[in-house]
């Protein structure tokens, strides 16, 4: 997830025009997400992704990133946290609209690789509050927004983390990869 140095994932109106991405980051993320076979989204992020990625790689001017990510997006199992959409007619997609802890733990217990959460600050807040996040893969952008949508809010108990890796990218973004300590 991309965050500002002061911990925001979007500006006050949801703007993300401050996020830095380049081919170096795309290549790094592309390698990492190949280890994941489940993508978790909130409704808004899912609808945004679904409107673009299924056909992004088929466009005549598709970039290498668009082609690779589109292939991955089509094959990955998608899980959407939403109370307003239903899984009927959704391809390779499961909708969770209640019993968050029970449903997420069922998915975690299934055979497979990593479950990757993309964007979705509201879904992230719910998952954090229920202690359902095992690790944080953050891309800290060199900007201070001062206000916006925070990554962390309404945290009741401290969450201890263990740093696994860091990586500095040429565009100034720093990746921080943590696991929740004790997991």
UniProtKB/TrEMBL annotation:
Gene3D superfamilies: Dihydrofolate Reductase, subunit A. It comes from the Bacteria. It holds the Pfam family RibD_C. Residues 2-173 form the Bacterial bifunctional deaminase-reductase C-terminal domain. This is Dihydrofolate reductase family protein.
